[in-house]
Design brief:
By secondary structure, the protein is mainly alpha-helical. The chain is 73% helix and 0% strand.
Length: 272
Amino acid sequence: MAKQIKQQQFQCCYQNWVAQQQLDLDELLQTLTNYPTDVDYLQLITKKMLTHFENYNNSRAQLAKHDGPSFLAPSWGSTFVNSFLWIGGCRPTLMIRLVYALCGSHLNTHLKEFLEGVRHGNIGEISSLQLKRIDELHAKTVKEQDKLSSYMATLQERIADEPLMLLASGCRGVGESSEGGVVDIAMDTHALDMYNVLMEADKLRMSTLKGILEIFTPLQAVEFLVAAKKLHLSLHEWSSRRDTRMGITHLLGSNNPSSSGDPPPLPPPLEP
């Protein structure tokens, strides 16, 4: 029962975050429509979005203490989205690749106006200095990301080392052991290691996002957040529909609502 409550809380944390993303997207779009030249308001909205992201990370960090591995292979996630996960979330470099894609897309769309000297101050008009800083952030992020990937691989390979390898080899039947306590301790230690690397990955995701937003102008920052949230919500929606179409949601016995639905009620709180 306690494990089921934990899983419900884990799932609710994610679903509430998806619902918050939709609310944030609506507010960002209204900002672009009504206040595209109000620098103070654009900065205020950007800060608000960052606060929401930090709040989600903090909530997830508290829950992940109880079972870190659940957040690395979430049962509540859709299969297509899960296939793209890197240590419990998106690769930080994906955010920077989105910057490059947006710059090229905006420039192509407004190429004629750009050649005629018309300027809108949007993300397609990124300066050479900004692009240089983005490139530097990309190189730094790749280095940190590769370091965490390597550490994660080490943790995964360690599962074959002592004591689990020796216990598995010596047991009479599959999964049987006279030293169950040793197995539990080894797996709990591994789970804690997974939790710690998840926290480091979340820190890298947050620092990368902040780094991008600091390079952009206030208007460009809001445009980037709109694109990032559209990507996240669209992938969530498309993947959920795909799972339903293929019968995967039914087979898993899970409820993976679309991003347009209301967030589910929270289950009882976990014991500290």
